[in-house]
Amino acid sequence: MTESRLIGPVRVVGVGLLGASIGLGLKAKGIDVILADASPTHLAIAVDYGAGRPAEPGDRPQLVVVCVPPDVTADVVAAELEAFPEALVTDVASVKLAVYHDLKARGADLSRYIGTHPMAGRERGGPMSGRADLFVGRPWVVVDHGNVSYQNAAAIDDLILDLGATLVELTPEQHDRAVALVSHVPQVVSSLVARRLIDAPHAALNLVGQGLRDVTRIAASDPELWVQILGQNAGPVAEILRAYRDDLDRFIAALEDFEAPGARRRIAEELFGGNTGVERLPGKHGVDRRYASLIVMVDDRPGQLARLFNDVGDAGVNLEDLRLEHSPGAQVGLAEIFVLPEVVERLTDELAARGWRIAG
């Protein structure tokens, strides 16, 4: 167990996915974690899973982390500030400006509050989905509103570093506009694409490949939670969606008059723009880099994927990323392996020599 930067105790209010994961991560560092939740069942499950202990009279937390739905975040933060006048209080809601304005209007003690947002999650919620390593290597935004001294906010930095995340500083306005682009709008687009599948014929669904699965993965997220998130960040989200609507109108116009001069060029430029945007996404270790890939056919038998990993390692190649595709009823899966471009040819030869079938 590595040494913790926090002193503790740390009180976690709300033991869903994020709260339970914070508790598990801090407990692994030896921190005394105090858990609270409106649901006695959720609280009992989180305690049983080892995320912390129930609150006791006389608890004096160093830090309070509020992990509740966005529509009640300001209420709970205000209550925690009042209940624990010596503690620093933070929240992990995915929208920051509305919470800050609400607390300011209430006259809350903003010298002991600072909002944060870990950019980590899963499609499944609840304490049983919690993971101690959920935040490792993930950005965790600290939203500076100018009312907290660096010394008072040091426990926030310690929390983030203890959980293995990477600290990013933004203003509330910068944060909300950023997450609208990289999180909230993708959720809307993913959900709308998935909604088109409701009445799709089975013949079409049987053709589904990894591309559609990638696009619709986050469509399985909790609709009630997302109504709250989108409601608190409606302005920036609507602005970006209007821009998408303009993009779609141009694309549709080109498709509807495909033989018109310049139509093919407009479509190609839109698609190429997507290539350029993807290239800007941070890759492994935060470096912009495009990886080469090869697709390996993996028999649907126990131990085959482990054997593939071992063979890649024996070839002296680092596996940068992996995607798996398995069509219903098929006796073989497809493993798309991402590696550095300079080793893809050698790895292809090595795997083929070891009996692997390379697709394509």
From TrEMBL:
Family, per entry: Belongs to the prephenate/arogenate dehydrogenase family.
NCBIfam families in alphabetical order: PRK06545.2-3 (NF005111), PRK06545.2-4 (NF005112)
EC number: 1.3.1.12
A GO MF label: prephenate dehydrogenase (NAD+) activity
Official protein name in the record: Prephenate dehydrogenase
Alphabetical GO biological process terms: tyrosine biosynthetic process
Domain named ACT: residues: 293-360
Enzyme class: oxidoreductase
Pfam families xrefs: PDH_C, PDH_N
Domain of life: Bacteria
Pathway where this protein functions: Amino-acid biosynthesis; L-tyrosine biosynthesis; (4-hydroxyphenyl)pyruvate from prephenate (NAD(+) route): step 1/1
The keyword S-adenosyl-L-methionine is annotated on this UniProt entry: no
Record keywords: Amino-acid biosynthesis, Aromatic amino acid biosynthesis, NAD, Oxidoreductase, Tyrosine biosynthesis
Keyword flag Oxidoreductase: yes
Ranges for domain Prephenate/arogenate dehydrogenase: 8-289
Taxonomic source organism: Agromyces bauzanensis
Catalytic reaction list: prephenate + NAD(+) = 3-(4-hydroxyphenyl)pyruvate + CO2 + NADH
PROSITE patterns to which the protein is assigned, alphabetical: ACT, PDH_ADH
